Structure formats: C-alpha cells, structure tokens
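Go through this one:
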Amino acid sequence: MLDRVVAIVNGDLILESDVDAEERFAALQPFSEAKPVTRDELIDRLIDRRLILQQMALQPEPPITDAEVDDELSILRRGIPKCAAYHCETLAGWEKFVADQGFTMEEMRDRWRQRMEVLRFIEERFRMGIRISQAQIDEYYKTTMLPMYQKENAPPLAEAAIADKVQEILLQQQVDKLLDDWLATLRAQGSLSILKPGEEAP
C-alpha cells in the first residue's frame, strides 16, 4: 500500500504513516486522552509539531543526551497504566509493550528525545518571561478552586497550601495561550496545505 501525503507544511510532507504512528505513540504517553483523538486532531498535532521543529532548526540547541532520555523513560515505564500487565519494570516487559505499540526501541528513544527537545524549546521560549501575581492566584482560588471543592462537597484546602499548584496552573495556561497564538501566526505566515482523502499533492 502506497503512503499518502496528508499535509504539506512549508514544503515538509506529513504522510498517512505519520498519522498512524502518532496515534500509536499516544498509548505511550503517561496520561493518555480520556476520549479517542480524531484523525483531524492528530493531523493538527503533527502540523504544529512540524512548525515547532522548523523553528527549532533555526536556533539549534545541544541535543538531549542519551542519559537524560533514559532517565525519563525509566520514569515513563512506571507511569503508563497499561504497562503494568506487561511487567514494564523488567526490560523484557518494556520491550514487549513498546513492540506491541508498533515501535522498535530505537524508534521509541528517538521519538521521546524529540518530545523532550520540543518541550524544552517551548519552556525556554514562552515560560521564562511570565510572572503570575498574587492577585491572579487569589482570583483563581476564589472563582475556580473554591467552587470545585463545593461541587465535590469537600472541605477546601487553604489558599496558602495550594498556592504553588495554582501558580503552576496559571503559568501553564499562559504558556498554552502564547504557544497557540504563535502557532496560529506561523500557520498564517507559512505555506500550509491539508489534503482531503483522494486529493493528490500538487
């Protein structure tokens, strides 16, 4: 069966096999999505990653080391619920689990290394300049956290006890917004084609 082009991002091709691999790779995430991801969502995710990788190539950073990848993968093996049945704490069990998702160990390491490099790029580009004020923490605690506790009929934790968690949530929300805006700009400025099934690449 011939591979099919599903999108072209500034001249880079995204293939049907990339979409298939992205779907299989989702099983290797520690917090898999509660609902199945649609094909369109997978294509969008691949387009966004390709745009980020293109920007990363303009400002090369030192590669993530093998030791750093191994450290993260050892944590990952303990964090995937489906892994327990394979006894992923053993190397043989982990290799069997990865193989059953359709990846070689080398492919798994390469994909995880790229994931780490993308996250590092996002962190360095967007997170460093963000400052969360005490007023923002107060507001989130009152308007979001307290109603959540009430809904669960649970006694609320004091704001001081969860201020760090609230700050992290607000920080991530701002990073996500900056990232979304930046990706929308890259999409608008670049050359992007998404091909419908049966449509041929120009």
User: Anything to note?
Assistant: The CA atoms of residues 19 and 42 lie 6 Å apart.
